[in-house]
Every structure is written in structure tokens, then in C-alpha cells.
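FW: tagging you since you asked about this chain on Friday. Here's the raw sequence from the shared folder, copied in full. Didn't touch anything.
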Amino acid sequence: MFRGLAVVLLLVLAAGCGGGDDSDSPREDTSRDSQPVLGAGGDEEQPEDAPALGFPVFATKNTTRVAGGDSVATAAGAARAVYPARTDESSPSVVAIVDQGDWRAAISTAQLMARPLQAAVLLSDGGEMPAASAEALEELAPSGAEEVDDAQVIRIGAAAEPENRRITEVEGASPASLAQGIDRLQISAAGDPTGAVLVAPADSPRFAMPAAGWAAKSGQPVLWTTKGSLPPATREAIRAHKRPRIYVLGPEEAVAASVVTELGKLGPTKRISGPDPVANAIAFARYSDRGFGWNVVDPGHGLVFVNSSRTVDALAGAAFSGAGQYGPVLLMTDAATLPVPLQEYLLDIQPGYDEDPVRGVYNHGWLMGDEAAVSADVQSRIDALLEIQPVDTESD
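HL: got it, structure written out here
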């Protein structure tokens, strides 16, 4: 069991290190002489070509990092963590490929991570497959999903088209129409439309990023609106859900009140928002309404931490929102600083125990990106805030 876990962790680290195209570029490792490496004993000579174990940056007791130098590598690492692909049940039936340059399509594609397709998602660079994505696709070896006519790859928009794979395509001339096409595919695979949809701001990526995690968990679509105008394709997509409950993510500066009013004609509509991207993500993590929303207001959850400057990392992180411990995407705006509202939120849901920590519940954090995205110091702070604590039941 432990050897298998080590292999999975190594794969995540290997897929995540560096950028999507620099896997062959040598990097000076000034810490090798002082760090243990995978597969060697503490008193053995350390093989030069063996990767360092990477602690505490790679993982701490309450955090695990997918250390991609860019979103391509991070998405590849996340896909390999969710799908180790060493057995039939740990391999995906289908892989979706979306262009890293189209962040709206990337966030909407997270819907396909949910049941029934449970697609792994990789990123292309326009019409090319970066090394990290190509290698991950080869290792994932999707078998084909019967819900999409045994396709092995779902190609989103103008993404790369891998050779020698059975492919189904989602087409669209705009972010709204691509999101509609993704949702149409999901409805066809699932058999029925969902009873709720999420509408996000197409011009405000930092307010839209948390939508990816929810789509991956729920299978509900992320549809798009500009600040002041609802696209026709979004209207059509909502109508396909037969007057669903509509949830708008983001404050009025991102989605105008007039758009919310317009959406109200298509179904009961509510806004979920915070005044800034960090608070907005926390508000969504706390939100609950008749089965919609994370409702993460207590301990015992997975949490995904993403730097808001790396928009498409939200898609990579959504892999852990839709599998494993399931958890919302939370944002930080500076690699070296954990925002005060986020610290307060983590303290609010920090686990505690009365007599025996073994009987407690636990939080776990997935960190997206290398130290340029989330510093080791911030990782250590997150680890401490996730740690289960004794509760003094005798004090007033």
C-alpha cells in the first residue's frame, strides 16, 4: 500500500514540476545533498537521477501540493493524482482536452469531471499538446466512455486533437456557446438536465474561478454572462434545463443587477457574492440552498487553494473538488501572504477533538502550483490551520 502511494506521489510531483514544455530542461538542485530521495535508504548513496522526496514543500501532514510551474503541468499532475491508472478502476474512461488560452472554456469543462463521465482534463497550447499533457494522456490511457459513443477524448473548441484516439468534439464560436455545448454533452451523457445552473462573469476571472470546483462536484453547468448583457447562447442553455434555479456568482461590479433581473425571467435567481475574489470564494464555500452549494461551515472537508493570478489552475484544482475528499476552490492573491479573511475562515472550520483525536474529523488542503503560486511559508500556515486541535470543554 505504502509503495503504491509513493508511486502516485512521485507521479504527481514529476508531472507537476516545472512548466508544461520544460520537462527536458535540467534544473540545478542545490538541496539534493541534504534531502532524502525516493527509493533510497537514509544511509545509502543517493542516486543522482532519483527525485528528492520534496518534503515539506511537496506535502505536509495536512497539505499536498501539485507543484506545476504553470497550469498545463498542474492540470497534468492533478489528473494523475485522481487517476493513477495502475488498475482498470483507477483509469479514466475519457479525457477532455481544452486550450489553456481559453480560461472560460476551461472552467466550463470542469462540468465533465462530474458523473457520469468523470473525465480527466488536460490542457493544450492552442492546437499543440505540451509535453506534460501528452505524457499524461499516454499514461492515463482512456478506454472510451459509452455515454459519448466510446470516445476516448473530448476535444473542447480549438484544443489539440491527439492522434490515434477516438474523439468527440464540442464546438462553439464564443465562451457562451462553448459552455452551452459542454452542458449539452453532459445532459446527453447523464440523461436529464440538472435542476440548477451557475452563471459566472465572463469578464472577471477571479470572481468566476470558484465555479470550476462546484461544476466538477455537481455536474451543473458554468454558463457565462458579460457584466451588462446576457448572451443568447446562455439563455438557450438555461431554457434546456426547464426553469432551473439560477445562481449568479460574483458581486454587482462583475454581474450587473439588470442581468440578474433578466435571469429571473428564466427561473428563480439568487446571487452569491463577496466584495473581492477571496471573500467571494469563501461566500461560495459557505453557501447552501436546497442542495445547491458546498455548505462547508464545519470541519471534515477537502479544500483546494489556488492563486487567483493563475486562472486555469482553478480547473486543475477542480479535479480534487470532484473526487477524493471533495472541496471548494479557495483563493489567495499573493503567493507569500495568506489573506486574513481566509485565515479566519480556516479557523472557523478548524477540526477539534474532546478526548481522542482518532475519533475526530479532519480537513485536508490541496495546493495548486509551485512556490511562485503558493509559498512554502504560506503552506506551513495553512497546514497549522488545518490541524485538529484539542477542545477545552471545562472552560466557560
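FW: The mean pLDDT is 91.
HL: agreed, and The longest helix spans residues 175-190.
FW: great, closing this out.
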